[in-house]
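hey m, so remember when u said the tokens were messed up on ur end? i reran from scratch. heres the input so u can diff it against urs
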Amino acid sequence: MEVLLLTQAQCVFCEQAKGVIERMSHSFDLSVATLDLDSAEGAELARSTGLVFPPGLFIDGELVFYGRLSERRLRKELEHRSLSVAPPDQTG
């Protein structure tokens, strides 16, 4: 899964979100990138998706969470997405 974290300098919740994503990357196949909200691309992404405040967490291009990131909610979301893309059982 492609994960993009939209961050801002001196953002406590952004640093916390980085730690949560790092822990999740041990359990899920994640490709993680960060983007600065103060960059032109970051500001446009925030505007176009209605991001209220950082951090913003995008999974496969979809804004899923913003603000303080809940590890429990992210794990649940990643589990759901993992099951959605799992290949069908070939036994039987």
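this time it looks ok to me. The first helix runs from residue 12 to 24. if urs says something different then somethings off w ur setup not the seq
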